[in-house]
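Thread: quick sanity check before group meeting

JM: Hey all, I'm pulling together slides for Thursday and realized we never actually wrote out the predicted structure for the chain we discussed last week. Dropping the sequence here so it's in one place. If anyone has concerns about the input, flag it before I start.
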Amino acid sequence: MMITERSEETEPLDDMEEAPGVADEDRPRRTEASGVERGGDDRRRRFGRRRRVCIMCADKIKVVDYKNVSFLRRYVSDRGRIETRRKTNACAKHQRALARAIKRARHLALIPYTAEHIRSAGAGHR
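JM (edit): ok, ran it. Output follows.
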């Protein structure tokens, strides 16, 4: 085995020195939330927009009341269908409570099962 002396060219870089040819802006930075990020504002997201918060969680509504018809009508489509979670932006817990309250209100005839224009047209009978 041959032992060679170290020359000045092979010395390791100090902490303060930069690697040749690599600027600080070009290096990917590590952030805790997003992993590797390449420049830009840390607060801005690359894909999609920020997920909306459940309205009922934000207002701290514990019980969805089936007698509050004006509130329930916001979650029923113009055709009389219960809107999906994607459209209502409700969490799973409150979406289930909404569906239960809408079904109870329908059963007590507070909310119609179908829209007026569908009932008057007599859809479904041929």
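AS: nice. The beta strands are 29-31, 35-37. The helical segments are 55-58, 69-73, 85-88, 92-107, 116-121.
JM: adding both to the slides.
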